[in-house]
Amino acid sequence: MSAAPASPPGRHPQLLMIVTVLIVAANLRPAITAVGPLIERIGEDTGLGPAALGLLGAIPALGFGVVALFVAALGRRWGLERTIFVSLLLLGLGTLLRSLPLGTFSLFAGTVILSAAIGVGNVLVPAVVKRDFPARVPVMTGLYTAVLVGCAAVASGTAVPLAAAKGWEFTLGVTAVFALVSAALWGVRFKDPRAGRAESAPTPAGADLAASEVSASEASAPEVPALGAAPAPGSAGGTMWHSAVAWQVTAYFALQSGIFYLMLTWFPAIQTSHGVTEAAAGFWLGAYQAIGIVASLVVGPIMQRAQDQRAVVVALAGIMLVGVLGILFLPEAMPAWALIVGFASGGNLLAGLTLISMRARTSGEASRLSGMAQGVGYLLAAVGPLLAGTLFELTGSWSPVLWIIVAAIVVMAVVGLFAGRRVDVL
User: Fold this and answer.
1) Domain for residue 59, yes or no?
2) Which of 195, 185, 193 is nearest to 10 (CA)?
3) Domains: count for the chain
4) Cystine design at 346: which of 136, 178, 295, 301 (Cβ 3.0–4.6 Å)?
5) What angle do CA 23, 29, 33 make, to 5 degrees?
6) Residues 161 and 34 sit within 8 Å (Cβ to Cβ)
């Protein structure tokens, strides 16, 4: 790999730019993934039932979906640096509010605020990568995704021991300190002359690996429309919401997200219902997420070299199906199923993001498709945790929930056969 280009005058050194991006990435999941291992403890202390706890688990996906529909326009108005800085401050404040002993109001209100703040980072961090590292997009995407997944796994794996020592309120609030410190570190970017001007729309996090061949001169190409922005007169962008392929990609993204957030919220409870200790359940939830790093490293290059993505998405669905059926019929091997389902879940996320870029012909189309897929997809995905909690409350068993996941996997494979074809979205 060739050496990184030297920073132009008036711009920060490359190492500082990389570090600040990774610092933001490190904040994008721990406040959420620490909840799953503690969900039953939270319910016992607050009196919330499974349905209400399912709503708590659904809020992040709802927040991501709503924010994805308009945040790019906000980033263009304020600039990426200021928008991300404010989001880090809100993340810290929301996390603190959630941990205050003010009853369910602070728990839910704090979760809403921090979820919206994280949603900003979900959309705008890829925009920063595209702007600051135009010839290194795949490398930087891999780095920040690895940091995001790794920190999420650490938060899940350490939640129960920390809660046992300090209480679950402290555990849910401790990441606020890191968010506020990260905001201060991110603030060094305000000296960059680009910090106050409008920005291009973000490229999806799963951008085509061919982007590594983009020359530095292409970084000065005209801006593409922001997520949710009205298309220019005569552009093809106005037909995105009428495109069958766009809806196929959106459906795939929604299904993989719904399964992930359902498991993120309830997998520890599913494990403890089979006799796994709370601490071990938290650890295996962390492993479920951490194995996603391996999936990204394995699945990404395969998707890049394949003629289309149909075989990959079906194979991932098959792997996940084996894991979920294993949980149903052989729960004694729960650690193995956690790793198998986690690998497939990480691969599905990468596949969903990659489909967004591969089905689009231009960066403008990719931006509009990303807004549609993430906005609609996350909003639909929010049904997963809520439905699972309600169904468990009605039946007293996790088996119906797991069978619904099986059905969702089958549908996801069928949708993937359509979304994975080598066709353009428009």
Assistant:
1) yes
2) 193
3) 1
4) 295
5) 145
6) no
Residue of 289, 241, 260, 270 whose CA lies nearest to 383: 260
Written as six digits, the tokens of 130 are 């595209």
Which of 94, 96, 150 is CA-nearest to residue 119?
94
| Domain housing 395 | 14-205+220-419
275: left (phi over 0), alpha (psi -120 to 50) or beta: left
**Cβ atoms within 10 A of the Cβ of 274, count?**
12
Tokens representing 326?
């294993």
Of 8-22, 44-58, 60-74, 141-155, the range with the lowest mean pLDDT is: 8-22
Q: State the amino acid at position 28 in one-letter form.
A: L
Query: How many CA within 13 A on the CB side of residue 296?
Result: 25
Report whether 189 contacts 125 (CB < 8 A): no
45 within domain boundaries: yes
Rounded distance between C-alpha atoms, residue 58 and residue 50, angstroms: 12
297 inside domain: yes
Distance of alpha carbon 44 from alpha carbon 53, whole angstroms: 11
Handedness of CA 258, 361, 203, 308 (dihedral sign): positive
What CA–CA distance (Å, rounded) separates 36 from 53?
10
Cα–Cα nearest to 119, from 64, 183, 80:
64
Does residue 259 register a pLDDT over 50? yes
Confirm whether pTM is higher than 0.90.
no
User: Closest by alpha carbon to 257, among 425, 63, 89?
Assistant: 63
Cβ neighbours, 10 Å, residue 219: 14
Q: Which of 17, 156, 202, 186 is nearest to 88 (CA)?
A: 186
Q: Is 319 in contact with 344 (CB distance < 8 Å)?
A: yes
Residue 395 lies in a domain: yes
Say yes or no to pLDDT of 350 above 50.
Answer: yes
Report, as an integer, the average pLDDT of 119-126.
Answer: 84
- Specify burial of residue 187 (Cβ count, 10 A radius: 0-12, 13-18, 19+): middle
Contact 69, 199 (CB under 8 A): no
CA distance 285 to 275: 15
User: Whose structure tokens read 């098959």?
Assistant: 318
* Dist. CA 34–CA 118, nearest whole Å: 14
Q: What is the CATH number of the domain that holds 28?
A: 1.20.1250.20
User: At which residue do the structure tokens 């289309």 appear?
Assistant: 308
Six token digits for residue 9: 């005058």
CA 243 to chain CA centroid, Å, is 24
